[in-house]
Amino acid sequence: MLMHCLTVRFADSASPAQIDAFRSALAALPDQIDTIVATRQGSDLGERATNAHFALVSEFADVDDFRAYLEHPAHRAVPRDGVESFQSVQFVVDK
């Protein structure tokens, strides 16, 4: 199983509508991309000032399914207005 963890910092100028559009588009991806096994997302609790604002964790069967996800039109269409930066990591776990 391949795990994909994404963290996002929104720009100070990001509007609530931009943030909601980004989050909603990510939440819709499992219904649009069949290579996603499972996904969870949420906003940071604000416990540390240096944390990202938002995180997404998705599971894929393997690296080929993850690559297909990255190239899928629905993933490419996720609006990124208001996003300041992304960081991600992928790693393999036993099932």
UniProtKB/TrEMBL annotation:
**Pfam families on file:** Dabb
Tell me which SMART domains the record gives: Dabb
Judging by the UniProt lineage, the source's domain of life is Bacteria
**Residue span(s) of domain Stress-response A/B barrel:** 2-95
Q: Which residues form a coiled coil?
A: none
State the protein's name.
Dabb family protein
Q: What is the lineage of its organism?
A: Bacteria, Bacillati, Actinomycetota, Actinomycetes, Pseudonocardiales
